Amino acid sequence: MSDAPVGDEGDFEDDEVDEEAPDDDTGNRLVGAIPRNVVEYIARQIVDEPDAVVVEADEGRGRIDLRLHVAPDDMGKIIGKRGRVAQAIRSVVRAAGAREGVEASVDIVD
Fold first, then answer.
1. Count of domains in the chain?
2. pLDDT tens, per residue, the chain with 110 residues
3. The domain containing residue 61 runs over which residues?
């Protein structure tokens, strides 16, 4: 334990804030990592063969195009009735991309 009295604010006088550090927390992350991880997670939760889920990515200027591959027997589950599941996946991934500042799109391929 320290002998300094509790609430002694003098300990913080020498602390400096690095004003040149960027305000965002992007650091060394890959561009489009969040949308890619989101589509992979959602797909693995829906399908019967999660090990067959593969997500490929093409990056561009402020844009990421994701291609989702699943087992042939799982295509119906990923697409859903009238494409509603696929559209929901696209909406969530688009929102995840917006959070990261990139435009994200998802294509489901066989």
1. 1
2. 555 555 555 554 555 555 554 455 545 457 788 999 999 999 999 999 999 999 999 998 889 999 999 999 999 999 999 999 999 999 999 999 999 899 999 999 98
3. 31-109
The pairing of strands 103-109 and 54-60 is: unpaired
> Is 1 inside any structural domain?
no
* CATH code (residue 66): 3.30.300.20
Report the distance separating Cα 55 and Cα 108, nearest Å. 10
In whole angstroms, how far apart are CA 21 and each of 16, 17, 89? 12, 9, 35
d(CA 54, CA 66): 10
